[in-house]
What we know:
mainly alpha; two-stranded antiparallel ribbon
Amino acid sequence: MPVSAAAESHSEVNSDLVAEGNCVGNPDGKVRARVPGWIDMPELQDANHEAESMIASLDGADASELKSKTKQRLREEINFISNPQFGSTSLGKKLFAQPLSLKPRQAELGLAAVRRSGVDMPIHLGRLCEAPLLNPEQEQMLFQRMNYLLQQAAVHRSQLNPSRPSRVRLELIDRLLALAAWHRDRIVEANLRLVFSIVKKFVNTSNSFDDLLSDGIVALIRAVEKFDFDRGFRFSTYATQVIRRNSYRTVVLNQQERQKTVGGLQDLELDLTDEGRESAISEKRWHELRSRLSVMLDDLDRREKFIIRARFSLGAHRKVHTLQSLADRLGVSKERVRQLERRAMEKLRAMAGDADLSELQVS
């Protein structure tokens, strides 16, 4: 299970701090901000080079800026998958002494992924799939390194003090996080072909490959961050279930949103259906109607807009909320929510009557 740095006990954190060979433990339990020797080992050369472009230098930052940066960092938890090996005093040097030996990207792998997808998509998307697959040893090493780097960043985060901000410690945390991100990205890019193979099965007229691919990549990243590399099975087994479940949920939620939105527009007495036609409205006109509805919603007051969106599962709302749940959220009675919903619908009907929607009628 992911372990939040904020949830670590004082004794557990201190044991991790002392375990890191280049962090010097003091009698008072504090740990000196010092860059560990292994961070500049040759095996991390590529990761360090990329990290340089991701890290903003704090040279010249005054005390106020450092204090603000410290507070911001303390608001952001650093999650990682803990492992008993992280207590070893020599783990850093051992981890980054072993060659990862990643193979270079291969353009033919990307082209093959496009051909196998079976959907009409730009060739350039194949560039996402040019990274060769990882062997079990490489996969294990990447996950172990990524989580160890995150654990080290969490260690130093636990030592931050807004009253006495440390530029060195802040820069070290940023560097450790950037190095962890580099290792995460290597795992992600090596598994993107898995996303292609899964999401293509969910493509239909209402769910485009591009949208499903985007959601699938987000699900893959989430799977990388939550995978316990010490369980003894391959990441692809876990990732397949996560991506498939996410794609199914996306399709279902999109269908529910369309149904509720059409129902809401029908309540506004807009004729959107025609039983004699296969498709009642083109995609272009559908987006125009959604745009018009969005504009009309902006003319409602804050509570009315919130209620309509929640009741019809619009925007960020992924499910239809009951009157009682909205009453609890707003701190009013259920009947008051019903009155506000009725008032909002009357306003929308009036706006729909005043608007020129002739160009949106189905031809």
